[in-house]
Amino acid sequence: MTTTAMVEIKGIHKSFGPVDVLRGVDLRVRAGEVVVILGPSGSGKSTLLRSINHLERLNRGYVRIDGELIGYRRSGGRLRELKEREVLRQRTHIGFVFQNFNLFPHLTALENVVEAPVAAQRKPRREATEKALLLLERVGLSDKANAYPRRLSGGQQQRVAIARALALEPKVVLFDEPTSALDPELVGEVLDVMRDLALRGTTMIVVTHEIGFAREVADTVVFVDDGLIVEQGPPAQVLDHPRHERTKAFLAKVL
Ligand code: ADP
Ligand code: MG
């Protein structure tokens, strides 16, 4: 086992005004590991994910991805914030899948997937298009390449969003409740795509309430409450033998 983490989160604190939302979070994620984050609404899960790709500025602590400090550089023992251009470059290594898909409405499914490699990585359009077609095939949407988002179901839109997140060959993909906005009958097709990514060795951090997915796919389940990691471990341990009352109480509600 390697000792270097693909994602290293160390002592992060984040407050909004007087409200301490993250109160000292440490987490290490190995290459190829799937981490599922569970926790009540308002516990800081989205803020934690957003902190990983520097959509939030931290009050304390740091995040490294594949050894690289995100959003900051060290200078004379202090952390200084990087320029926006640098942060954008770093974000190209971090896929992000949102609850509400966030596709560009004026672009087709294919164009949505092609956009980032061409715009952010200056890949030739032709090469990006070939790759995008493969990714759409992988998420089962070859026949929808030329469809605009409004013509796609929520499940299809989310699968396009996943293909788009993969187009930059990210080092880690973050999912923030990727199935919460979907009609129940569409949840399975998105979870199937995520399970396939996991099997292919994608490093993933997934915030979800889908306990079945956590049990089956996660290597590690992390329970967050009130801005802290309360416990973490293999699914069988955290889901079936939680050690903390708060975890038990949460699971009793969602299971
Ligand atoms: P979760 O994703 O677990 O539901 P969030 O990370 O979205 O939780 O939010 C945690 C807490 O931080 C909530 O109380 C929320 O209201 C607060 N919060 C999140 N973002 C902001 C913000 N930009 N400004 C002020 N408060 C925020
Ligand atoms: Mg959230």
Topology record:
Blueprint: E1 7-16, E2 19-29, E3 34-38, H1 45-52, E4 60-65, E5 68-69, E6 72-75, E7 78-81, H2 84-91, E8 94-97, H3 109-119, H4 125-138, H5 154-166, E9 172-176, H6 184-199, E10 204-207, H7 211-217, E11 220-225, E12 228-233, H8 235-240, H9 245-254
Magnesium ion binds at residues 45-46, 176.
The separation of the N and C termini measures 33 Å
User: What pattern of helices and strands is seen along the backbone?
Assistant: EEEHEEEEHEHHHEHEHEEHH
Question: Nearest-angstrom radius of gyration?
Answer: 18 Å
What bound compounds does this protein have?
adenosine-5'-diphosphate, magnesium ion
What fraction, in percent, of the residue positions are helical? 25-40%
**Can you count the helices?**
9
Pfam families: ABC_tran
Domain ABC transporter: 7-251
Membrane topology: Peripheral membrane protein
GO molecular function: ATP binding
Short description:
Its main location: membrane. With 255 residues, this protein is α/β, with parallel strands linked by helices. The chain is built from nine helices and twelve strands.
Feature tags:
255 residues; alpha/beta; 6-stranded mixed sheet; 4-stranded antiparallel sheet; 9 helices; 36% helix; 26% strand; globular; binds adenosine-5'-diphosphate; binds magnesium ion; cell membrane; membrane; transport; ATP-binding; ATP binding
